[in-house]
Amino acid sequence: MNVFSIVTYTGAVLSTALAAAALVRNGKSPVNLSFAAGMLALAAERVFALFGMQAVLPSDVLAWECRRIAAMSLLPGCWLIFSLGFARENYRQFLARWRGAVVAAFAVPICLAAVSSVYSDLLFSGVGHAKDSTAWVLPLGLAGTLFHVVFLLAMVSVLVNLERTLRASFGTQRWRIKFTLLGLGALFAVRIYSTAQVLLFSQVDMRLFPPIATTLVIADLMVIVSSLRASLRKVDIYVSQEVLYNSLTLVVAGVYLLALGVAAKVSTYFGLGEALLHNAFFAFLLFLGIAVILLSDHVRQEVRRFVHRHFRRPLYDYRQIWQIFTERTGSLFEIRDLCAATAKTVSETFGVSSVSLWLLDANQERPSLGGSTALSVSRHGELKDLEREIGVLMVTMRGKTTPLDLHRPDWGTPPDDGEPAVVPSPPDATIRYCAPLSVGGEFLGLMTLNDRMTREVFTPEDFDLLKTIADQAAGMLLNHRLYESLGRAREMEAFQTLSTFF
Questions:
Q1: Spatial strand order in the sheet of 404-405
Q2: pLDDT band at 304 (very low <50, low <70, confident <90, very high)
Q3: How far apart, in whole angstroms, are the C-alpha atoms of residue 149 and residue 134?
Q4: What percent of the chain is modeled with pLDDT above 70?
Q5: Torsion angle, CA of 241/242/246/251, rounded to 10 degrees?
Q6: How far apart are the C-alpha atoms of 93 and 240, rounded to whole Å?
Q7: Per-residue DSSP letters for 97-108?
Q8: 3-state SS, residue 441
Q9: Alpha-carbon distances, residue 47 vs 15, 53, 61 (angstroms)
Q10: CA distance 89 to 154
Q11: What's phi and psi for 155, nearest 5 deg?
Q12: Which of 107, 149, 217, 479 is 20 to 30 A away from residue 496, measured at CA?
């Protein structure tokens, strides 16, 4: 058994295990069902590809390749459903909005694969060997070309939706799903690359199969890491229904396909086709590693600390922070949206994964979750115990005007020595800091933060900025409440006027 066989079987086993785990976790969820079906289709496709590469007779090669295409025809629809629903609180709206695309992603590839199973010459016009190689090459027929065009468009759509989910996540939510999105994104990026190569040269070159099998193993391992952090059902991200005009995936895919045509002409002229293929794959692995590093909150926080300590500049760019905060909150009219935008800004600014805003009701009796980077407002049952603890903490925070470090009995002001201390508390602690949301002598609630991933305590500069953001958020929340009260008063006045008239 050679290395390619080991890699292929490893990817198939891992994909099958992930599919089984998804079904055991929640087999009735459309997201889990599509994930399981997509993983099983990937496993079958890779095994069929291996058998096709090992076949000796051209007729056997053609038969196994037709089976691979049949398994491959399930991928667009399954993964499109998964990308529309994964980790999204409002996934049913997206499924309803994309139902035409989902039906087409299932119907077109499956119909082409079914027709080609009867008339194989429509899928491939022949079987041969690559130039100066023993690898099999299958020139595309009309149905094969159309199949790969639809597959390419579907993979780009899947990447766009995964990117959209990643950009909408932040804090603990991103920490939980980051490796799943990166792993699957890497897999589909390689599939876009290989499909573009097939369409560019109008033939299926089996030398493209080993990179795909290797990427499947990498993607499976990254999904496993993400699953160990949190199950698929424990993340609820609200993604905007607005059209995503500035999609990085669409820009990269468009530039890549344009550059690919130019590179193919240049490589053909200089005879560098095969070298370009391998170099592109290693460049992809390099970019994947860079993406993993850049999406790490710990790394970004350490870079910020390094610049502050060694280049003697302020820790924060206050003008940029205030500009971002104003842009995110200036046009919001719902308290839930305002709290979510505030929590996201605080999470990104201080490098804290879990930020929550707890608000008192109109009667000042019980707290409720306004917005969070780690908790979901829709999960009322899971918040009851936490609400009681927050209620006790609110009693303590009434009358306070500055943020509090719960690990310090002296109300948490760290020593002003320029070197933050390191505390032994875990980075995923529920609450480490809290800041009161009060304005004009009225206590509206509080903001809670967990410990930094770097385990460094807040400095006086951090506390000052946190207090400023909390005070500004409290002012906006009070204005929203007054505006709602004014609206209700006007409605009552109109009702009384109409009643008096009658």
A1: 367-372, 355-360, 442-449, 433-439, 404-405
A2: low
A3: 27
A4: 76
A5: 60
A6: 10
A7: HTHHHHHHHHHH
A8: coil
A9: 12, 10, 13
A10: 23
A11: -65, -35
A12: 479
Contact between 61 and 136 under an 8 Å Cβ cutoff? The reply is yes
CB atoms closer than 10 angstroms to residue 490: 10
Sign of CA dihedral 288, 266, 275, 132: positive
| 138: Cβ contacts below 8 Å, ≥ 6 apart | 61, 62, 65, 124, 126, 127, 128, 203, 204
Say whether pLDDT at 445 is over 80: yes
What per-residue confidence (pLDDT) applies to 289?
59
Is the model's pLDDT at 78 over the cut of 90? yes
Residue 363 CA to residue 367 CA, distance in Å, equals: 10
Query: What's the predicted TM-score (pTM) here?
Result: 0.61
> Considering only CA atoms, which of 250, 267, 154 is closest in space to residue 201?
267
DSSP label at 405? E
Phi and psi angles of residue 438, each rounded to the nearest 5 degrees, phi first: -135, 145
| DSSP code, position 410 | T
pLDDT-based confidence at 17, cuts 50/70/90? very high
Name, in order, each residue with C-beta under 8 angstroms of 255's C-beta and a sequence gap of 6 or more.
none
Q: Residue 327 — pLDDT band, cuts 50, 70, 90?
A: confident
| Secondary structure string (H, E, C) spanning 205-230 | EHHHHHHHHHHHHHHHHHHHHHHHHC
Nearest Cα neighbor of 227 from 431, 37, 19, 83 is 19
Tell which phi-psi region holds residue 445, choosing left (phi > 0), alpha (psi between -120 and 50) or beta. Answer: left
> Encoding tokens for residue 407?
């690990």
Long-range contacts: 12-18, Cβ < 8 Å, 24+?
Answer: 12/43, 12/44, 12/46, 12/47, 13/43, 14/216, 14/217, 14/220, 14/221, 14/224, 15/39, 15/40, 15/42, 15/43, 15/46, 15/216, 15/220, 16/40, 16/43, 18/220, 18/223, 18/224, 18/227
Q: What does the alpha-carbon distance between residue 495 and residue 207 come to, in Å, rounded to a whole number? A: 76
Query: Using CA of residue 18, residue 19, residue 24, residue 29, what is the dihedral sign?
Result: positive
CB distance 75 to 41 below 8 Å = yes
- Nearest Cα to Cα of residue 447 among 501, 393, 485: 393
Nearest to 33 by CA among 93, 71, 74, 94: 74
Alpha helices by DSSP H, listed for 124-171, are 142-168
